Amino acid sequence: MLALQPSACNVTHPDVQLTQSKMFKVLEVYDDESPAHRSADSYKLDGQLTNNVNKFLKSMRLHGLCTWSGLISGDNKASALKTLQPLVRKLISYYDEVDDEFSNIDQEELCITRMPRIGRGKHNIHFDPLESPQHAALAKLAAESHFSDLLSKYMGAHCSLRESGISITRPYQPNRSAFAHDDQASGAERQPGQEQFVDAKAGEGMEWHSDGPKGEATILMALEDVAPEQGSLRVVPGSHKVYVDGIGHTETFLKEHCAQLAEEQISYNYRAGQPMIIDARTLHSVTPNVSSKWRVVVWFIYDSF
Question: What share of the chain is helix, strand, coil (3-state, %, to 5)?
Fold first, then answer.
């Protein structure tokens, strides 16, 4: 996790000198918009590439995020879904509820480079960029949707696709024990007395975090609609402006600002083929999956290095 600096706060670091900075403000919107908005639709573009590039750049610079309906063609969405579905079904069929892992999966055969568990019932599946047919399908969708061109304009340098994959989260499991230690669930180390109890029946979400430094971007997208109860993406517009390279923000810091994050955040429920494009410095989180369905989200990592 990376830094979110509060207002009227002087921070010292051996390698970085910081001055007082303003907190991000979701109310910094387009001139012709109402300042009272908390909907992801306020950051949505509609239509094809030609008439929306400048709007995209403005949204990314102001807010560090943009959703775009119509950027991805129906054919590209359908083709990618057709390629990914067999793999997703195979993964689900091999899921071991007790061990919370995909048992007896041959990663090399499936062209998966790694599949870390990033939460209770939540895994990131990383596709081999050279051998994976799933990566090839997603790379084709990305190229024909001009992701690289758009992000290169935004970053002012050539930006290329580094990696693709899926985040897959199990559904609600009513027969599980209702509560578990969150240090057992996430693998995080805690000091004595810091243990917390969390609902273990739900597929875990993710706490507030940023994905990377300046020059990187993340594109998140579902190929089928995701209902709110399957897990919503929450994003803090403008938070990329107060990111400081090389300084992480602690759990204590986030807890101190949780009220502000709750006030400033917007919530996005994935619509099929409508990507959420975020500057990697933008704070975002995910709510748990409390539905009876698996949650599958495609991700693309871009960088200009």
Answer: 25, 25, 50
